[in-house]
Amino acid sequence: MSLKTSDVFATLNDPVALDMAFIVGPILVTGIGYRLVRDRIMDGSIVVVDGDPSSGLAFYDSTEDKLTTQAGNPPADLDQRGLLLHECTHALIDVCNMPRVTRHIDELTAYIAQHVYLVRSQPTWTVAPNNPPWKAFFQSIFDLIKRHDLHNSNFAMITTDELEPLRLQLAALPYVNYGTFRKESLSGSNGLKDFGTFGRMSRLLTSMMN
Ligand SMILES: [Zn+2]
Asked: What is the Å distance from ligand 1's center to 32 Cα?
């Protein structure tokens, strides 16, 4: 089966997520932003749908304002909630309507937030074995978090320049499409669509029934 809307809410209501506050390039990641995402799910603006029950991948589609959950048996464990928070970070960027954010910075911010959440939730967390480019990428994210003391404290400011080596690592990762975007390609985080009262109601029902 796939994870449920209740798992998304459990992640968004987690005090660890709500306590986050830091800046990545032009993006402000805060608990307030995650609250906005939760509220937009609750009013049907963002819909949460079941993903492929055999796929470990989750998605956020900023055109359709749709979060697709990954495979898993509720309640989601820490790693699974980390991935849901990654997708909720894409939603946060979309909710805040930041059309100038690039695809790569959007993605790196989601990975940073995911790993801040993992390390704060479990201080003994270390990078798991993985195929070499992915392990090296996750290690670089982890090192960046340590360098800014983000595992312990808030208000770090990570500049786009500082992210450049990580961006190059991201663009070179296998099995994903990050490399098909150029450095300047935009993320498409364009705010939420107006689906109208009935549209939102039907989307809310979809979220509630999955
Ligand atoms: Zn992502």
From this structure: 20
Q: How far is the CA of 57 from the centre of ligand 1 (A)?
A: 10
pLDDT in tens, 139-197: 999 999 999 999 999 999 999 999 999 999 999 999 999 999 999 999 999 999 999 99
Cα(89) to centroid(ligand 1), Å: 8
Model-level pTM?
0.97
Q: From the CA of 83, how far away is ligand 1's center (Å)? A: 9
Distances (CA, A) of 163 to 39, 40, 49, 169, 192: 31, 30, 32, 10, 27
Residue 90 CA, ligand 1 centroid: distance in Å: 7
**Cα–Cα distance between 149 and 133 in angstroms, integer?**
24
Number of structural domains the chain divides into: 1
Domain holding 148, by residue range, is: 5-209
